[in-house]
Amino acid sequence: MGRVLIIGCGGVASVAIHKCCQNSEVFEEIMIASRTKSKCDALKAKLDGGKTKIETAQVDADNVDEVIALIKSYKPDLVMNIALPYQDLTIMDACLACGVNYMDTANYEPEDIEEPEWKAAYEKRCKEEGFSAYFDYSYQWAYKKKFEEAGLTALLGSGFDPGVTQAYCAYALKHEFDTIDTIDILDCNGGDHGYAFATNFNPEINLREVSAPGSYWENGHWVEVPAMSIKREYNFDQVGQKDMYLLHHEEIESLAKNIPGVKRIRFFMTFGQSYLDHMRCLEDVGMLSTTPINYEGKEIVPIQFLKALLPDPASLGPRTKGKTNIGCIFTGKKDGKEKTYYLYNVCDHQECYKEVGSQAISYTTGVPAMIGAMMLLTGKWNKPGVYTVEEFDPDPYMEALNRWGLPWQESHEPVLVE
Ligand code: NDP
Asked: Residue 11: CB within 6 Å of ligand 1?
């Protein structure tokens, strides 16, 4: 049915590509293109022999002209951006220039946060909007008109969170509630990789997210709190009791716009004490900084140097045991009555490793990336413009989650987070 250019060949992309090959009726032909072509070739060698025809290419997706040249030569129906959030805008520009649909798994953030033009816009947004994370949707929402006029669709953030969590919200609104009052998104990783410190996905993106101030949406505005200052405990199905901390997270921004009348949206993620102690120490000594420093005549970026020292997230697969449990707890009203509802998925690290050679964090992101692409390729989700997952009909996406490895569970009597 379709021909897809996939940019990036890291932890998440590798799972998405495995899943595309399992779904060869939809993904007949794919091209894997990334900065390091040898990784694309190695993955192709592993997956060749199935029905999906695989090609590979080298591309620097920071360079719009390179991406345009690649799109023009391969002529895909869709570009899946599974590189890093830094490349979102260049790849969107290339898609517009070539008349191709676009999708990604994380919203834009700049690599260089000291760049004066970006910094001025960022400081203005911090004051006006009231949250100070480096990433936000404004840069990609600014493309809405251009995509509408070109008759193209850009699907933003089709991973698990963002991604599946928003499909859960759209599903709850469609089938369970007349109005939703509160949404708590709970992201629990009960996995253990045996290292004192490692990140489950790209360390730079992960550490930037976790070390930022927390924030939540309440009564029409953002409330920002110091990083890790709101802690709760929750007893997760099939994982058990965990400490979790309130974080800023990108889907809060779009859900606040798209779930009518919602009063509060919070996001919590579980962390163990060892992770938090290491992170605080690394931050205190400046190792999380993205500002280059000069060391013995050579310029280095501390967080990139740290990335070189930490285990490659892809190498955690064989070592990680345990389960993830990610979902949304809703309160609201149906037929005039108050009700509560919990939708979640439980995923087993070792099962994921057996199936696609990756741990559950990459798996829970890579599967929805494939599903988002499938929604666009099959025309089930098809409207010109720039959209997040909750803006489409959740039913075919929810069905696909059950079919492709992330079945959801529900509870009508969940324990609420205080
Ligand atoms: P990795 O670091 O493992 O992989 C990133 C890939 O992108 C690598 O193959 C890298 O190439 C490639 N890349 C980086 N820069 C460029 C460039 N300029 N041009 C071409 N290719 C480039 O990251 P992950 O797989 O962990 O994460 C991928 C994305 O998924 C990120 O955007 C992340 O934020 C997002 N994510 C989303 C989640 C969700 O639930 N929505 C959860 C987890 C992650 P090289 O091999 O040369 O480094």
From this structure: yes
Q: What are phi and psi of 183, to 5 degrees?
A: -130, 125
CA distance 380 to 219: 34
pLDDT-derived band of residue 313, with 50, 70 and 90 as boundaries?
A: confident
Residue-averaged pLDDT of the chain: 95
Tokens 């251009």 correspond to 146
Q: What is d(CA 404, CA 200) in angstroms, rounded to the nearest whole number?
A: 22
239 CA to centre of own chain: 22
215 CA distance to ligand 1 middle (Å): 25
**Strand 337-348 versus strand 293-295 pairing type:** unpaired
Query: Please, which residues have CB within 8 angstroms of residue 137's CB and are 6 or more apart in sequence?
Result: 107, 108, 156, 250, 253, 254, 388
Task: Output the CA 9–ligand 1 centroid distance in Å.
Answer: 7
The structure tokens listed for 312 are: 């490659």
Given the DSSP bridges, would you call strands 298-300 and 153-156 parallel, antiparallel or unpaired? unpaired
For residue range 204-239, list pLDDT tens digits in order: 888 878 888 999 999 999 999 999 999 999 999 999
Cβ of 332 closer than 6 Å to ligand 1, yes or no, is: no
**What spacing in Å lies between the alpha carbon of 240 and ligand 1's midpoint?**
30
